[in-house]
Amino acid sequence: MKKLYPYAFFLVLLFSCSKEGGQTDNGEDPLVTNVKACFSLTKNNLLVGESLEITNCSSGATTYSYNLGNGETRTEANPTVVYGKAGDYSISLTASNEQEETDIFSQQIEVIEAVAEDFFFYPEIASGFQIIPLEIGINPNSNALYGIFLEEDLEGSGGKKFYYHEIDENFNSTKQYLADKPFESGSAFVEYYSNSKNFVFTRTLDGLYGSQEVTYNEGWAFMNGVSPADKLSYGSISEGVNYLYYGTQEDGGIYKTAVETRNSSGDAFQVSLNAFGPADSMLGDLLPYGTGYIGFGAVFSKNESNPKITSYKPLLVFFDSDLQVISHKIYEESVLSSMVNSSNDLNGSYHLTVLSNGNIAMYANGELLLADSEGNLLKIEYFENSSNIQGLVGLGDSFVLSSYKALRKYDSSGTALNSINYPGNFTPEIVEIEENLFFIAGYELEGKIALLYGQADKNLNLINLN
To answer: What CATH topology corresponds to 21-112?
Structure first.
């Protein structure tokens, strides 16, 4: 028993010291903390490259530290994270208050290898049909996403028809017939008037032939249709109460760049025609620029025999506020001279954007041109196998474009920043929606063209639409 007394005394002393010394000022047990760490996840199983949203539900904390299990830490309360490698990860949150009390909470996730196709939404297409997207955008009246599609019956007698789709947040669409397709066409757009919608399609044969226009009222009752044989309109912009339709128009035996001014009812009352280069020319895009405008298109020669189009070169034009030409550039360095040999090659998507440093990005027929504010060429790049239906969107200090099976991002100086592979090769527009980039693309599927819907953030991280 004598051997036990020292040990008993030590235990009593240790117990009394720890209890007295460990009490807080209010007598509470120090093991009881005022901080509770907590978070929830949008999912516990996700794909590589897929965004994971973490929602903080902690109480009593003022600072947060997340260990994502991949060597990365975050201090935001509600971070959104992306894992670049497959594996099992433990996400741990340490929540703290100003008294340096802490609590820890963890959850496990599984990240699996992703195939890019898993991120896209594929709308159903009737058997025997193919659909080519010609335009997408935002309806300014309803703020709904819309698409203009060319639907072709490859097996039956349905022919080729244009349709307008309004697409809701669940990617369900309301389909509206617009017109039959009597000639070749790879370009379409819509202008929304005060009480009607005017749809315009290019229509060409071996040579330039003209535009087809159909107008519907708000209830989709047909109002009128015209098919001029001496001019093509490739797009329009609103300017005050008027609209500027741009493209090309025959005048004196050659096609000249044309900017037609129309009133709020769509009636034309003025046209600005200009000749550039040795023969014909056109504008495929037009933007306000300074106190005037800037236009992007091409010069070329139209021939009676094959090849119908020769000597193609990109064109940049600077206009004043009255649409008088200030200056222009013809880019002799283009590789497209021998590649554009049909008027149908001019029916694709032309894109023009001005970047925050003043540089100008132009994109058409798979060729990117970057120029300074005076139009002097800084960079030229051609993407092989790209269709002439491709998109470009300016992001201020950068821009993103589509090409054959790839989306690519560049800074304002033309340095490549990032790229991702995707199946598409017919992507007329890339639309910015709520800080993300949305696109509708046509892709080849068993000998026909089908549709996919895609979305990515501005760094080209794909967002899973499923």
So the answer is: Immunoglobulin-like (2.60.40)
